[in-house]
Amino acid sequence: MAHILVVDDDNGFREGLVETLVDLGHSVDEARSGEQALEMLESTGAPFTCMFLDFRLPGIDGLAVLDALRKTAQGQALPVVMLTGFASSDNTIGAMTLGAFDHLTKPVGRQAIQALLARIIASTGTSEAAANTSHPFSAESAGARPRLLGVSETLREVQKQIGRAASSEATVLLTGETGTGKEVAARVLHDASRRSGKPFVAVNCAAIPAELLESELFGHVKGAFTGATEDRPGCFATADGGTLLLDEIGDMPLPMQAKLLRVIQERQITPLGSNRVIPVDIRLVAATHRNLQTMVEAGEFREDLLYRLNIIPIALPPLRERLADILPLAEHFLAEVAKARSRELRLSLPAQHLLVGYAWPGNVRELRNAVERAGALAPGAMITAEDLGFLNGKPDLGEPLVGTGLLEMTLPDAVETLERALICHALTLASNNRADAARRLGISRQTLYAKLAALKIE
Protein backbone atom coordinates (compact mmCIF):
# COMPACT_ATOMS: atom_id res chain seq x y z
CA MET A 1 0.00 0.00 0.00
CA ALA A 2 1.29 3.43 -0.93
CA HIS A 3 0.94 6.65 1.08
CA ILE A 4 -0.01 9.35 -1.44
CA LEU A 5 -0.46 13.12 -1.26
CA VAL A 6 -2.92 14.67 -3.74
CA VAL A 7 -2.58 18.45 -4.27
CA ASP A 8 -5.33 20.12 -6.32
CA ASP A 9 -7.67 23.06 -5.71
CA ASP A 10 -10.36 21.58 -8.00
CA ASN A 11 -12.57 19.86 -5.43
CA GLY A 12 -14.35 17.64 -7.93
CA PHE A 13 -11.18 16.33 -9.60
CA ARG A 14 -9.31 15.96 -6.30
CA GLU A 15 -12.12 14.02 -4.64
CA GLY A 16 -12.48 11.76 -7.67
CA LEU A 17 -8.75 11.02 -7.76
CA VAL A 18 -8.67 10.37 -4.00
CA GLU A 19 -11.64 8.01 -4.30
CA THR A 20 -9.87 6.07 -7.07
CA LEU A 21 -6.63 5.83 -5.10
CA VAL A 22 -8.41 4.68 -1.94
CA ASP A 23 -10.39 2.15 -3.96
CA LEU A 24 -7.08 0.80 -5.27
CA GLY A 25 -6.05 0.18 -1.66
CA HIS A 26 -3.81 3.18 -0.96
CA SER A 27 -3.65 5.68 1.90
CA VAL A 28 -4.28 9.25 0.73
CA ASP A 29 -3.87 12.73 2.20
CA GLU A 30 -5.23 15.86 0.49
CA ALA A 31 -4.04 19.45 0.09
CA ARG A 32 -5.81 22.35 -1.62
CA SER A 33 -2.78 24.59 -2.15
CA GLY A 34 0.96 24.43 -2.60
CA GLU A 35 1.60 26.06 0.75
CA GLN A 36 -0.56 23.47 2.53
CA ALA A 37 1.23 20.64 0.69
CA LEU A 38 4.68 21.88 1.74
CA GLU A 39 3.51 22.17 5.36
CA MET A 40 2.17 18.61 5.29
CA LEU A 41 5.39 17.28 3.79
CA GLU A 42 7.38 18.97 6.54
CA SER A 43 5.16 17.92 9.43
CA THR A 44 4.01 14.41 8.50
CA GLY A 45 5.55 11.54 10.44
CA ALA A 46 5.11 8.91 7.74
CA PRO A 47 6.89 9.70 4.46
CA PHE A 48 4.82 9.81 1.28
CA THR A 49 5.35 7.26 -1.48
CA CYS A 50 4.50 9.82 -4.16
CA MET A 51 2.59 13.04 -4.86
CA PHE A 52 0.01 14.02 -7.47
CA LEU A 53 0.52 17.78 -7.98
CA ASP A 54 -1.59 20.17 -10.06
CA PHE A 55 0.10 22.92 -12.08
CA ARG A 56 -2.44 25.67 -11.42
CA LEU A 57 -2.86 26.34 -7.71
CA PRO A 58 -3.85 29.36 -5.64
CA GLY A 59 -0.74 31.06 -4.28
CA ILE A 60 2.43 29.30 -5.39
CA ASP A 61 1.93 27.14 -8.46
CA GLY A 62 2.84 23.50 -8.98
CA LEU A 63 6.26 24.16 -10.53
CA ALA A 64 7.23 26.37 -7.59
CA VAL A 65 6.15 23.60 -5.20
CA LEU A 66 8.22 21.05 -7.14
CA ASP A 67 11.22 23.39 -7.17
CA ALA A 68 10.91 23.90 -3.40
CA LEU A 69 10.68 20.13 -2.87
CA ARG A 70 13.85 19.46 -4.81
CA LYS A 71 15.77 21.77 -2.49
CA THR A 72 14.95 19.66 0.57
CA ALA A 73 16.50 16.33 1.55
CA GLN A 74 13.09 14.66 1.88
CA GLY A 75 11.69 16.10 -1.34
CA GLN A 76 14.62 15.17 -3.61
CA ALA A 77 13.63 11.50 -3.73
CA LEU A 78 9.83 11.95 -3.75
CA PRO A 79 8.25 10.87 -7.08
CA VAL A 80 5.97 13.71 -8.22
CA VAL A 81 3.31 13.31 -10.92
CA MET A 82 2.35 16.68 -12.38
CA LEU A 83 -1.26 17.19 -13.49
CA THR A 84 -2.57 19.79 -15.91
CA GLY A 85 -5.77 20.52 -17.77
CA PHE A 86 -3.76 21.69 -20.79
CA ALA A 87 -0.26 20.47 -21.59
CA SER A 88 2.15 22.95 -23.18
CA SER A 89 5.79 22.78 -24.18
CA ASP A 90 6.84 24.99 -21.28
CA ASN A 91 5.00 23.19 -18.49
CA THR A 92 5.94 19.73 -19.77
CA ILE A 93 9.65 20.50 -20.16
CA GLY A 94 9.66 22.54 -16.95
CA ALA A 95 8.20 19.66 -14.95
CA MET A 96 10.56 17.05 -16.36
CA THR A 97 13.59 19.32 -15.93
CA LEU A 98 12.80 19.59 -12.23
CA GLY A 99 12.62 15.82 -11.99
CA ALA A 100 8.89 15.08 -12.19
CA PHE A 101 8.22 11.35 -12.50
CA ASP A 102 5.56 11.98 -15.14
CA HIS A 103 3.32 14.69 -16.53
CA LEU A 104 -0.33 13.83 -17.17
CA THR A 105 -3.21 15.65 -18.79
CA LYS A 106 -6.59 15.55 -17.04
CA PRO A 107 -8.75 13.51 -16.93
CA VAL A 108 -6.73 10.47 -15.89
CA GLY A 109 -8.26 6.98 -16.16
CA ARG A 110 -8.30 4.42 -13.34
CA GLN A 111 -6.18 1.84 -15.16
CA ALA A 112 -3.64 4.51 -16.12
CA ILE A 113 -3.33 5.53 -12.45
CA GLN A 114 -2.90 1.91 -11.41
CA ALA A 115 -0.17 1.32 -14.01
CA LEU A 116 1.58 4.56 -13.06
CA LEU A 117 1.63 3.67 -9.36
CA ALA A 118 3.06 0.26 -10.21
CA ARG A 119 5.91 2.01 -12.04
CA ILE A 120 6.49 4.40 -9.14
CA ILE A 121 6.53 1.65 -6.51
CA ALA A 122 8.82 -0.52 -8.65
CA SER A 123 11.27 2.33 -9.12
CA THR A 124 11.31 3.68 -5.56
CA GLY A 125 14.82 4.59 -4.63
CA THR A 126 16.12 4.67 -8.20
CA SER A 127 13.45 6.63 -10.02
CA GLU A 128 13.81 9.58 -12.31
CA ALA A 129 12.39 11.69 -9.50
CA ALA A 130 15.85 11.84 -7.94
CA ALA A 131 17.30 13.58 -11.00
CA ASN A 132 19.86 16.37 -10.66
CA THR A 133 18.02 19.58 -9.85
CA SER A 134 20.77 22.07 -9.17
CA HIS A 135 19.07 24.79 -11.22
CA PRO A 136 15.58 26.31 -11.15
CA PHE A 137 13.27 26.46 -14.15
CA SER A 138 11.02 29.42 -14.79
CA ALA A 139 7.64 28.68 -16.33
CA GLU A 140 7.12 32.30 -17.29
CA SER A 141 7.15 33.33 -20.94
CA ALA A 142 10.54 34.31 -22.28
CA GLY A 143 9.38 36.21 -25.31
CA ALA A 144 10.96 35.08 -28.54
CA ARG A 145 12.98 32.22 -27.08
CA PRO A 146 12.66 28.96 -29.05
CA ARG A 147 9.84 26.60 -28.12
CA LEU A 148 8.73 23.18 -29.32
CA LEU A 149 5.11 24.02 -30.11
CA GLY A 150 2.38 21.41 -30.40
CA VAL A 151 -0.26 19.50 -28.47
CA SER A 152 0.09 15.98 -29.91
CA GLU A 153 0.98 13.06 -27.70
CA THR A 154 4.08 12.26 -29.76
CA LEU A 155 5.48 15.76 -29.29
CA ARG A 156 4.69 15.71 -25.57
CA GLU A 157 6.87 12.62 -25.24
CA VAL A 158 9.71 14.53 -26.95
CA GLN A 159 9.18 17.45 -24.56
CA LYS A 160 9.39 15.07 -21.60
CA GLN A 161 12.63 13.55 -22.91
CA ILE A 162 14.16 17.00 -23.38
CA GLY A 163 13.13 18.02 -19.88
CA ARG A 164 14.77 14.92 -18.41
CA ALA A 165 17.89 15.34 -20.53
CA ALA A 166 18.22 18.99 -19.50
CA SER A 167 18.94 18.01 -15.91
CA SER A 168 21.97 15.95 -16.95
CA GLU A 169 25.21 16.68 -18.79
CA ALA A 170 25.04 13.67 -21.11
CA THR A 171 25.52 14.01 -24.87
CA VAL A 172 22.24 14.07 -26.82
CA LEU A 173 21.66 12.76 -30.35
CA LEU A 174 18.68 14.35 -32.12
CA THR A 175 17.35 12.48 -35.13
CA GLY A 176 14.52 13.21 -37.52
CA GLU A 177 13.67 14.24 -41.05
CA THR A 178 14.77 17.59 -42.41
CA GLY A 179 12.54 20.38 -41.12
CA THR A 180 11.28 18.61 -37.99
CA GLY A 181 12.90 21.17 -35.66
CA LYS A 182 16.11 19.52 -34.45
CA GLU A 183 17.93 22.84 -33.95
CA VAL A 184 14.92 24.26 -32.11
CA ALA A 185 14.94 21.18 -29.86
CA ALA A 186 18.65 21.70 -29.17
CA ARG A 187 18.03 25.34 -28.23
CA VAL A 188 15.13 24.37 -25.96
CA LEU A 189 17.39 21.79 -24.28
CA HIS A 190 20.08 24.44 -23.75
CA ASP A 191 17.61 26.97 -22.34
CA ALA A 192 16.26 24.40 -19.87
CA SER A 193 19.72 23.33 -18.68
CA ARG A 194 22.06 24.84 -16.11
CA ARG A 195 24.14 26.15 -19.04
CA SER A 196 21.37 28.47 -20.23
CA GLY A 197 23.35 31.60 -19.31
CA LYS A 198 26.32 30.49 -21.42
CA PRO A 199 26.74 30.41 -25.23
CA PHE A 200 24.74 28.21 -27.56
CA VAL A 201 26.75 27.57 -30.74
CA ALA A 202 25.40 25.69 -33.76
CA VAL A 203 27.55 24.51 -36.66
CA ASN A 204 26.23 22.77 -39.77
CA CYS A 205 28.77 20.09 -40.64
CA ALA A 206 27.27 19.65 -44.13
CA ALA A 207 27.64 23.33 -45.03
CA ILE A 208 31.39 23.61 -44.37
CA PRO A 209 33.96 22.25 -46.86
CA ALA A 210 35.83 19.26 -45.47
CA GLU A 211 39.20 21.06 -45.62
CA LEU A 212 37.87 23.92 -43.46
CA LEU A 213 35.87 21.89 -40.95
CA GLU A 214 38.79 21.24 -38.55
CA SER A 215 39.59 24.95 -38.37
CA GLU A 216 35.90 25.80 -37.91
CA LEU A 217 35.55 23.37 -35.00
CA PHE A 218 38.91 23.63 -33.22
CA GLY A 219 40.21 27.04 -34.37
CA HIS A 220 43.59 27.96 -35.82
CA VAL A 221 46.56 30.19 -35.14
CA LYS A 222 48.04 32.84 -37.41
CA GLY A 223 49.96 31.29 -40.28
CA ALA A 224 48.43 27.83 -39.89
CA PHE A 225 47.48 27.88 -43.58
CA THR A 226 47.27 30.32 -46.48
CA GLY A 227 44.84 33.05 -45.53
CA ALA A 228 45.14 32.52 -41.76
CA THR A 229 46.12 36.12 -41.00
CA GLU A 230 45.17 35.99 -37.31
CA ASP A 231 44.32 33.60 -34.49
CA ARG A 232 40.71 32.42 -34.60
CA PRO A 233 38.88 30.41 -31.92
CA GLY A 234 36.79 27.50 -33.16
CA CYS A 235 33.24 26.53 -32.27
CA PHE A 236 34.37 24.36 -29.33
CA ALA A 237 36.20 27.27 -27.69
CA THR A 238 33.38 29.72 -28.46
CA ALA A 239 30.84 27.38 -26.82
CA ASP A 240 32.96 26.85 -23.68
CA GLY A 241 30.67 26.64 -20.66
CA GLY A 242 27.60 26.29 -22.87
CA THR A 243 26.18 23.99 -25.53
CA LEU A 244 27.60 23.03 -28.93
CA LEU A 245 25.25 21.68 -31.59
CA LEU A 246 26.89 19.68 -34.37
CA ASP A 247 24.10 19.66 -36.93
CA GLU A 248 24.11 17.14 -39.78
CA ILE A 249 26.78 15.09 -38.02
CA GLY A 250 26.14 12.29 -40.53
CA ASP A 251 27.78 14.40 -43.24
CA MET A 252 31.07 14.74 -41.37
CA PRO A 253 34.02 13.12 -43.25
CA LEU A 254 35.54 9.98 -41.68
CA PRO A 255 38.96 11.57 -40.91
CA MET A 256 37.22 14.38 -39.05
CA GLN A 257 35.10 11.87 -37.17
CA ALA A 258 38.27 10.35 -35.68
CA LYS A 259 39.47 13.78 -34.47
CA LEU A 260 36.05 14.59 -33.03
CA LEU A 261 36.01 11.28 -31.14
CA ARG A 262 39.32 12.16 -29.49
CA VAL A 263 38.04 15.60 -28.46
CA ILE A 264 34.85 14.10 -26.98
CA GLN A 265 36.91 11.59 -24.99
CA GLU A 266 39.53 14.05 -23.70
CA ARG A 267 37.44 17.27 -23.58
CA GLN A 268 40.34 19.30 -24.93
CA ILE A 269 41.23 20.75 -28.33
CA THR A 270 44.37 21.69 -30.21
CA PRO A 271 43.94 24.63 -32.64
CA LEU A 272 45.21 24.02 -36.15
CA GLY A 273 48.88 24.98 -36.45
CA SER A 274 49.42 25.00 -32.69
CA ASN A 275 50.78 22.59 -30.06
CA ARG A 276 48.82 24.23 -27.29
CA VAL A 277 46.12 22.06 -25.70
CA ILE A 278 43.01 23.92 -24.56
CA PRO A 279 40.49 22.29 -22.18
CA VAL A 280 36.81 22.85 -23.05
CA ASP A 281 33.68 22.45 -20.95
CA ILE A 282 30.66 21.98 -23.21
CA ARG A 283 27.38 20.12 -23.45
CA LEU A 284 27.51 18.35 -26.82
CA VAL A 285 24.37 17.87 -28.91
CA ALA A 286 24.51 16.17 -32.32
CA ALA A 287 21.74 16.13 -34.91
CA THR A 288 21.16 14.33 -38.19
CA HIS A 289 18.46 13.33 -40.65
CA ARG A 290 20.46 10.24 -41.62
CA ASN A 291 20.28 6.72 -40.17
CA LEU A 292 23.68 6.54 -38.48
CA GLN A 293 23.39 2.83 -37.70
CA THR A 294 22.93 2.09 -41.40
CA MET A 295 25.92 4.32 -42.16
CA VAL A 296 28.00 2.37 -39.62
CA GLU A 297 27.10 -0.89 -41.36
CA ALA A 298 28.09 0.66 -44.70
CA GLY A 299 31.43 1.86 -43.29
CA GLU A 300 30.46 5.53 -43.66
CA PHE A 301 30.31 6.42 -39.95
CA ARG A 302 32.48 5.35 -37.04
CA GLU A 303 30.75 2.95 -34.68
CA ASP A 304 32.76 4.15 -31.67
CA LEU A 305 31.71 7.75 -32.40
CA LEU A 306 28.07 6.69 -32.61
CA TYR A 307 28.38 5.11 -29.16
CA ARG A 308 29.79 8.39 -27.83
CA LEU A 309 27.02 10.49 -29.38
CA ASN A 310 24.04 8.22 -28.77
CA ILE A 311 23.94 8.56 -24.97
CA ILE A 312 20.47 10.15 -24.92
CA PRO A 313 18.70 9.59 -28.27
CA ILE A 314 15.71 11.82 -29.02
CA ALA A 315 13.75 11.32 -32.25
CA LEU A 316 11.78 14.27 -33.63
CA PRO A 317 8.56 12.98 -35.29
CA PRO A 318 7.61 14.14 -38.81
CA LEU A 319 4.68 16.53 -39.09
CA ARG A 320 2.54 13.92 -40.88
CA GLU A 321 2.57 11.94 -37.61
CA ARG A 322 1.50 15.04 -35.66
CA LEU A 323 -1.82 15.94 -37.30
CA ALA A 324 -3.06 17.57 -34.10
CA ASP A 325 -0.15 20.04 -34.26
CA ILE A 326 -0.64 21.33 -37.80
CA LEU A 327 -3.30 23.96 -37.10
CA PRO A 328 -1.84 25.22 -33.79
CA LEU A 329 1.53 25.65 -35.53
CA ALA A 330 -0.08 27.36 -38.52
CA GLU A 331 -1.96 29.76 -36.23
CA HIS A 332 1.28 30.55 -34.39
CA PHE A 333 3.20 31.26 -37.59
CA LEU A 334 0.31 33.31 -38.94
CA ALA A 335 0.26 35.41 -35.77
CA GLU A 336 3.94 36.20 -36.34
CA VAL A 337 3.21 37.31 -39.90
CA ALA A 338 0.24 39.39 -38.73
CA LYS A 339 2.38 41.11 -36.10
CA ALA A 340 5.08 41.93 -38.65
CA ARG A 341 2.48 43.36 -41.05
CA SER A 342 0.50 45.13 -38.28
CA ARG A 343 -2.78 43.63 -39.48
CA GLU A 344 -5.22 40.90 -38.55
CA LEU A 345 -4.92 37.55 -40.35
CA ARG A 346 -7.10 34.44 -39.98
CA LEU A 347 -7.33 31.00 -41.56
CA SER A 348 -10.60 30.17 -43.31
CA LEU A 349 -12.15 26.74 -42.77
CA PRO A 350 -11.26 25.53 -46.31
CA ALA A 351 -7.69 26.71 -45.72
CA GLN A 352 -7.57 24.71 -42.48
CA HIS A 353 -8.83 21.63 -44.32
CA LEU A 354 -6.13 22.07 -46.96
CA LEU A 355 -3.37 22.38 -44.34
CA VAL A 356 -4.50 19.26 -42.49
CA GLY A 357 -4.83 17.29 -45.73
CA TYR A 358 -1.38 18.13 -47.09
CA ALA A 359 1.46 15.61 -46.61
CA TRP A 360 4.14 18.17 -45.49
CA PRO A 361 7.25 16.43 -46.84
CA GLY A 362 9.26 19.44 -45.61
CA ASN A 363 7.71 19.16 -42.14
CA VAL A 364 7.47 22.18 -39.80
CA ARG A 365 9.88 24.26 -41.87
CA GLU A 366 7.69 23.85 -44.94
CA LEU A 367 4.57 24.71 -42.94
CA ARG A 368 6.18 27.92 -41.66
CA ASN A 369 7.26 28.91 -45.16
CA ALA A 370 3.80 28.19 -46.59
CA VAL A 371 2.04 30.25 -43.93
CA GLU A 372 4.49 33.14 -44.29
CA ARG A 373 4.02 33.13 -48.07
CA ALA A 374 0.23 33.04 -47.85
CA GLY A 375 0.15 35.69 -45.13
CA ALA A 376 2.46 38.01 -47.04
CA LEU A 377 0.54 37.77 -50.32
CA ALA A 378 -3.07 37.46 -49.11
CA PRO A 379 -5.14 40.49 -50.24
CA GLY A 380 -7.45 40.38 -47.24
CA ALA A 381 -7.53 39.44 -43.59
CA MET A 382 -8.81 35.91 -44.30
CA ILE A 383 -6.34 33.33 -45.63
CA THR A 384 -8.34 31.25 -48.12
CA ALA A 385 -7.67 27.88 -49.75
CA GLU A 386 -6.83 29.81 -52.92
CA ASP A 387 -4.08 31.66 -51.06
CA LEU A 388 -2.57 28.25 -50.26
CA GLY A 389 -3.23 26.86 -53.73
CA PHE A 390 0.50 26.59 -54.44
CA LEU A 391 0.56 23.52 -52.17
CA ASN A 392 -1.73 21.59 -54.51
CA GLY A 393 0.68 22.01 -57.40
CA LYS A 394 3.67 20.45 -55.66
CA PRO A 395 4.88 17.25 -57.32
CA ASP A 396 5.66 15.56 -54.00
CA LEU A 397 2.19 16.06 -52.56
CA GLY A 398 1.29 12.40 -53.03
CA GLU A 399 -2.01 10.93 -51.93
CA PRO A 400 -4.00 13.04 -49.46
CA LEU A 401 -3.62 12.01 -45.85
CA VAL A 402 -7.40 12.07 -45.32
CA GLY A 403 -10.37 11.15 -47.50
CA THR A 404 -12.35 13.73 -49.41
CA GLY A 405 -15.37 13.06 -47.18
CA LEU A 406 -13.46 14.36 -44.16
CA LEU A 407 -12.45 17.47 -46.05
CA GLU A 408 -16.12 18.40 -46.46
CA MET A 409 -16.78 18.27 -42.70
CA THR A 410 -16.28 20.95 -40.10
CA LEU A 411 -12.92 20.62 -38.36
CA PRO A 412 -14.31 19.30 -35.00
CA ASP A 413 -16.44 16.69 -36.81
CA ALA A 414 -13.52 15.63 -39.02
CA VAL A 415 -11.17 15.28 -36.04
CA GLU A 416 -13.74 13.24 -34.11
CA THR A 417 -14.43 10.98 -37.11
CA LEU A 418 -10.74 10.41 -37.76
CA GLU A 419 -9.96 9.71 -34.10
CA ARG A 420 -12.87 7.28 -33.81
CA ALA A 421 -11.77 5.40 -36.95
CA LEU A 422 -8.12 5.18 -35.87
CA ILE A 423 -8.99 4.05 -32.34
CA CYS A 424 -11.47 1.40 -33.50
CA HIS A 425 -8.96 0.13 -36.07
CA ALA A 426 -6.19 -0.09 -33.45
CA LEU A 427 -8.50 -1.91 -31.01
CA THR A 428 -9.43 -4.40 -33.72
CA LEU A 429 -5.78 -5.09 -34.56
CA ALA A 430 -5.00 -5.42 -30.85
CA SER A 431 -7.96 -7.77 -30.19
CA ASN A 432 -9.35 -5.11 -27.81
CA ASN A 433 -6.16 -5.08 -25.73
CA ARG A 434 -6.11 -1.40 -24.76
CA ALA A 435 -2.45 -1.29 -23.80
CA ASP A 436 -1.48 -2.74 -27.18
CA ALA A 437 -3.90 -0.38 -28.98
CA ALA A 438 -2.36 2.63 -27.22
CA ARG A 439 1.12 1.54 -28.35
CA ARG A 440 -0.11 1.17 -31.94
CA LEU A 441 -1.63 4.67 -31.80
CA GLY A 442 1.50 6.17 -30.28
CA ILE A 443 -0.35 7.56 -27.25
CA SER A 444 -0.36 6.78 -23.55
CA ARG A 445 -2.97 4.50 -22.07
CA GLN A 446 -4.55 7.27 -20.00
CA THR A 447 -4.99 9.32 -23.17
CA LEU A 448 -6.66 6.35 -24.88
CA TYR A 449 -9.01 5.87 -21.91
CA ALA A 450 -9.94 9.55 -21.97
CA LYS A 451 -10.66 9.42 -25.70
CA LEU A 452 -12.71 6.22 -25.35
CA ALA A 453 -14.84 7.97 -22.74
CA ALA A 454 -15.15 11.22 -24.73
CA LEU A 455 -16.08 9.39 -27.97
CA LYS A 456 -18.32 6.92 -26.10
CA ILE A 457 -16.53 3.92 -27.60
CA GLU A 458 -17.37 0.71 -25.77
TrEMBL record:
<dbReference type="InterPro" id="IPR025943">
    <property type="entry name" value="Sigma_54_int_dom_ATP-bd_2"/>
</dbReference>
<feature type="domain" description="Sigma-54 factor interaction">
    <location>
        <begin position="148"/>
        <end position="376"/>
    </location>
</feature>
<dbReference type="InterPro" id="IPR025944">
    <property type="entry name" value="Sigma_54_int_dom_CS"/>
</dbReference>
<dbReference type="InterPro" id="IPR003593">
    <property type="entry name" value="AAA+_ATPase"/>
</dbReference>
<keyword id="KW-0597">Phosphoprotein</keyword>
<dbReference type="GO" id="GO:0003677">
    <property type="term" value="F:DNA binding"/>
</dbReference>
<feature type="domain" description="Response regulatory">
    <location>
        <begin position="3"/>
        <end position="121"/>
    </location>
</feature>
<keyword id="KW-0547">Nucleotide-binding</keyword>
<keyword id="KW-0805">Transcription regulation</keyword>
<dbReference type="InterPro" id="IPR058031">
    <property type="entry name" value="AAA_lid_NorR"/>
</dbReference>
<dbReference type="InterPro" id="IPR001789">
    <property type="entry name" value="Sig_transdc_resp-reg_receiver"/>
</dbReference>
<dbReference type="InterPro" id="IPR002197">
    <property type="entry name" value="HTH_Fis"/>
</dbReference>
<dbReference type="Pfam" id="PF25601">
    <property type="entry name" value="AAA_lid_14"/>
</dbReference>
<dbReference type="InterPro" id="IPR027417">
    <property type="entry name" value="P-loop_NTPase"/>
</dbReference>
<dbReference type="Pfam" id="PF02954">
    <property type="entry name" value="HTH_8"/>
</dbReference>
<dbReference type="InterPro" id="IPR011006">
    <property type="entry name" value="CheY-like_superfamily"/>
</dbReference>
<dbReference type="InterPro" id="IPR009057">
    <property type="entry name" value="Homeodomain-like_sf"/>
</dbReference>
<protein>
    <submittedName>
        <fullName>DNA-binding NtrC family response regulator</fullName>
    </submittedName>
</protein>
<keyword id="KW-0238">DNA-binding</keyword>
<keyword id="KW-0067">ATP-binding</keyword>
<feature type="modified residue" description="4-aspartylphosphate">
    <location>
        <position position="54"/>
    </location>
</feature>
<dbReference type="Pfam" id="PF00072">
    <property type="entry name" value="Response_reg"/>
</dbReference>
<dbReference type="InterPro" id="IPR002078">
    <property type="entry name" value="Sigma_54_int"/>
</dbReference>
<keyword id="KW-0804">Transcription</keyword>
<dbReference type="Pfam" id="PF00158">
    <property type="entry name" value="Sigma54_activat"/>
</dbReference>
